[in-house]
Protein: Mannitol-1-phosphate 5-dehydrogenase
Amino acid sequence: MTTRLTRAAAHARPPAPVRAVHLGLGAFHRAHQAVYTMADPDWGIAAYTFRNTELPRRLAEQDGLYSLQVRGDGEPQAQIVDAISRAHPGSDTDQWLADLASPDVALLTLTITEAGYQVSGDQDSAAIGRVVAGLRGRHRASGTPIALVPCDNLPGNGGVLREAIRTAAEGEDPGFRSWIEDHVSFVDTVVDRITPAATEQDVANAARLTGLEDRAPVVTEPFSEWLLAGDFPLGRPAWEKAGARFADDLAAYEQRKLWFLNGAHTLLAYVGPALGCATVDEAVGHPVLAGLTESWWDIASRHASLPAEDLTDYRQRLLERFSSRGVRHNLLQIAADGSQKIPARILPVLRAERAAQRMPEAPVAALAGWLIHLRDRPVRDPRADELVSLARSTDAPRRVLSTLDATLADDRELISAVEDYVEHLRLSSCPTG
Ligand SMILES: NC(=O)c1ccc[n+]([C@@H]2O[C@H](COP(=O)([O-])OP(=O)(O)OC[C@H]3O[C@@H](n4cnc5c(N)ncnc54)[C@H](O)[C@@H]3O)[C@@H](O)[C@H]2O)c1
Ligand SMILES: O=P(O)(O)OC[C@@H](O)[C@@H](O)[C@H](O)[C@H](O)CO
Structure:
């Protein structure tokens, strides 16, 4: 019988003192920020998830440890990550408040998905409401400054978080609100490491690679990038030891990441299943989808800020990453939350193309694929009910697009191109039809 992964069994160091808190404990945090933090042994993480109770339970049983399988095209490599000192479910509210109030804690990282930044409904249980509650306690306890470091795929994620916190704190004590302005630093980031959800097979592989039973493994690719811009008033881990880079302005890099990588992912996630593909590597191996991806990158390159040589190299590298069979990234996972992703990944390029009087095929294909997805597949999206009903109504392309951008929805030529493409995809996905 294989021994369960614990600090004793892995001969790991004792947990480092908690100086960082994370919200949104999932696969990506563990493949990315936790790995960078591990490079600085003075910093431990208290990691929270308010939705998933199983993962913190499994991690707690393993003293916060898990194995990270790095899978490229060669033999997979496994390492034990020991940066998480404590893992908590959302029901540990008192501990969450205590951690955020602690002057030993210098920063809070977040991976709460794009949808998590919305401020509406039941604020006390939503991610932003919980952060505001934590900050309120910190203000009362000591008023020590803190850095908030969002690591989700959103343009200007530091600014998005600042606005969400300001909105959620409206109506609070003015002293608290002005403390937020003066003592809470919002750091912008560009994050990149393709990390699909782990499978049962990955659990079996973890045991084979480490000799220990790991019930919470993470599988990721060799590539990793973290760019940050902002202040850390109480210091930060030496993330640069693991390759993090600091800059004043991330806009051009953020555009490259969101348009080229995430935009292509979104295109493939919606068009791929219509052509019988289930994963990213399968999709980029399909001649039609490979052509659409290249065409998307050509179009995006016309409007991107970085020099052409940078973009050419980036595209080449992306194609290698997408084609790798080391990480099999499920298109349905990427397809979740389209209403939150399409505006950042696809629409800026589409608007620029329409302003130049062009009708670009790839963004039209992405929107047509999204419509089919909304009509025919299980939809995970904070606006799912509304979108599914609109997608099944008459005049669906215009009505669905109007939820994202009223001006584009009034563009008759565009709506008609999307309608035609829906039909085109239907015929392509049905060889006898
Ligand atoms: N997986 C990747 O390759 C990758 C790469 C770069 C960035 N990211 C960012 O990280 C996010 C999480 O990815 P993951 O792979 O860890 O996913 P995951 O499903 O493993 O974990 C998601 C975490 O977010 C929480 N969450 C989900 N919806 C939420 C909501 N509406 N409000 C608050 N919390 C919510 C979940 O409870 C869980 O803790 C992505 O949405 C993306 O923004 C992921
Ligand atoms: O994680 P999401 O849901 O925001 O988007 C799905 C993928 O596009 C994304 O996870 C990429 O793999 C990642 O951004 C690569 O760094």
